[in-house]
Amino acid sequence: MTTNTLLLLLLSLLIAGGLSFFQYIYKAKNKSKVGWFLAFLRFLSIFGILMLLINPILTKNTFETVKTPLPIVVDNSSSISFLNANEKALELYKRIQLNSDLKDKFDVQTYQFSDDFEPTEIFDFKGTQTNIDVVAKNLKSIYKNTVYPTVLITDGNQTSGNDYVYSFDPLNKVYPVILGDTTKLFDLKINQLNVNKYAFHKNKFPVEVFLQYSGTKSVTADFVISQGNSVFSTQSITLSPSKKTATVPVLLPADKIGLQVFKVTISSKEKEKNTYNNTKNFAVEVIDQKTNIAIISAINHPDLGAMKRAIESNVQRKVIIVKPNEIKTLQDYNVLILYQPTTEFKTIFESNKVAGINTFIITGNNTDFNFLNQQQDNLSFKMSGQKEEYLSVFNKQFNLFAADNIGFEDLPPLQNAFGTVTTKGVVSVLLSSKIRTIDTNAPLLVFAENQGRRATYLLGENSWKWRLQTHVNNQSFEKYDVFMDKIIQFLASNNSKKSLVVEHESFYNSGEAIEITAQYFNKNYEFDEKARLTITVKNTETKQTKNYDLLKGNNSYKVNLDGLKAGSHTFTVKELNSKTTYSSSFEILDFDIEKQFVNPDVEKLTQLAGQTQGKAYFSDQVDVLIKTLLENEEYKTIQKSSVTKTPLINWMWLLVLISILLTTEWFVRKHNGLL
What we know:
single chain; alpha/beta; Rossmann fold; Immunoglobulin-like; 5 domains; nine-stranded mixed β-sheet; six-stranded mixed β-sheet; 14 helices; membrane; transmembrane; VWA domain-containing protein
């Protein structure tokens, strides 16, 4: 409290005392006890009012000692125990964390990381992934705008995340403590394997295997790809200190339909410490056949080539462009795209009434709409001879399948005859039309399903401009091609829309996130946010069964099945209210990425230390590290002073007290006849 405030408080006491004495004692004819009591009440009231005006503040100076933070971050992944370095890691951690001199100088804080990052003082070395990049991101967030050193106890073998060398703040030194035996051991390793998830029946599919070698002499290794007892490929690969890597391309036959699991093995006569990384399993799902699509058109138009390229971007699709009179049999095709049909298409329509193939009808300036009215029952056309350009409007309520807005409102207009288009029966409109700024509420892209047969209508030509514009917007045709593929996927299947739709992979690698997504639709085919979904997973070998609930996310329900053992699993998703179920299976391939290493990555950890002006240390140099931290003058304890100002009085309670005092004074005066 300042001197001025004390003087004001003293003056307030004098003023309050003087006024009270003058009014109730000095002027009073009879100096009774009541007068003194009233004078006391008046004194308190006046003094309280003056206190409100002065509002005295208490000022308190406090001093706080702030130490530089020293995060000690320990690699908690299973690769540490696989390299037999877990006990050493705990020993190093305790020597640094319990050092009294470091505690005096630094605010020592401990963390662990594997696939995630968290504060802890307990380590089990069971993490399934190593993500050093997540350490950098979290430390930047925790110690924002602070200069501090980091002790990183790890083998440096990262299995997920971005390159950690450049992830850490270069202003904050990182001191890696390298775990594991740095002696170069003889090791053959399958470093990477590239293969498509899908292959077509009776075709061959490519597999590309990348091999890596560590050793001091030349070696001849046996490379084998097998499935069960069948061997598909055997090769001899020569590796040496000057040729440490090799790429082996192989073509394998897709003879069996369904999920096929293969095994790649690399071995030699030399003894290895780590043979786990000599084997790698992979799986391919063999699909029965391609979808054959006929684009039938009596005219030449850029739309035809654009559609063919977009559809065939999915290797499962095969497109042929033909004229109506060139079609011999419709049975060769799974989908018919009828481009601007006229009376020349009469035979096609009549044959398809028997064949029952789903159709994609595209209209334009050359379409015979009277003929089209006679051949289908989903749309009614009353068109004039005048041409019009139609912009598109995306329908967010469309729910036949998951359709993304690829920016339809900004795409060039389609050209079609001017007139009225009305829908008949149950149809779903994905795009409606707009003429310049006026919504017509007429359909532009329509999907219909009637008695198991499906049809799609695009009412306008020049959709080739849409594909071109999406490439301009995104530097890729992908968005448009995926949109077109979803249309073909709708037409290629005659299955009615299911109320329970489940998405999952056919196979996963051990340690990967195993996520299964489901959607449940009510009778109006609207996403049901009140559904109750559960999943039962059964290991076909051990017969062990586990139950989980699916949690609601953004327009879907999800479950994470991490922790399941390698092998074949069957599962059933069930909606508890309706009892609707979906059953399928998946395979977890035996692959532990944390067991792929025989040495720490000294090179990258040294590079990280250099990038941050720190230094890398081996496990027997921890005393040198401690000495370096203690002698570094950059990290000093700072004493901060903080000034705390608090009001001497609470004005709310003081107002209440003043009101009570004045009220009491009034009642006493009235009771004694002084009013």
